[in-house]
From TrEMBL:
Binding residues annotated for Mg(2+), in chain numbering: D77, D79, D81
Gene: hisI
Name recorded for this polypeptide: Phosphoribosyl-AMP cyclohydrolase
Organism: Pseudomonas cavernae
Compartments (UniProt record): Cytoplasm
Binding site for Zn(2+): C78, C95, C102
Record pathway: Amino-acid biosynthesis; L-histidine biosynthesis; L-histidine from 5-phospho-alpha-D-ribose 1-diphosphate: step 3/9; Amino-acid biosynthesis; L-histidine biosynthesis; L-histidine from 5-phospho-alpha-D-ribose 1-diphosphate: step 2/9
């Protein structure tokens, strides 16, 4: 039997892009990276666990902010090089800016316009810590 992780086309750094999507509304909340360990733990623990490229370590989404992503379903695309996590976003905030989604800017009139409100001040979310958890 093949390891399900071997079915994934990992990039040259051993990572795969992971898109978190709200399991009810379908809204794209964020994109991050996963290595084999992060994806294995995500499936095992049924919560989103990513690989932080900047810090070179596992990043359990919500470990600092409390905004955990509970996994409902894990999907792999046709080229086996992107995964989608259908999640329940606890607290309703996925972005470190305090917004529901990291995709809060819309291109209009030659510039990026911010269209989504801050639901919670990032300083109130991250007590003295780095805003990227």
């Amino acid at each position: 039997m093949t390891d399900w992780l071997d079915d994934i086309n990992w990039n040259s750094d051993g990572l795969v892009p992971a898109i978190a999507q709200d399991h009810k509304t379908g809204r794209v909340l964020m994109m991050a990276w996963m290595n084999r360990e992060a994806l294995t733990l995500t499936a095992t623990e049924q919560r989103a666990i990513y690989w932080s490229r900047s810090r070179g370590k596992l990043w359990r989404k919500g470990e600092e902010s409390g905004h955990v992503q509970k996994l409902h379903e894990l999907r792999l695309d046709c080229d086996a090089d992107v995964v989608i996590l259908l999640v329940e976003q606890l607290g309703g905030i996925a972005c470190h800016t305090g917004r529901e989604s990291c995709f809060y800017r819309v291109y209009a009139d030659g510039a990026w316009q911010t269209v989504d409100p801050v639901l919670k001040d990032p300083h109130a979310i991250y007590q003295g810590g780095h805003p990227h958890e």
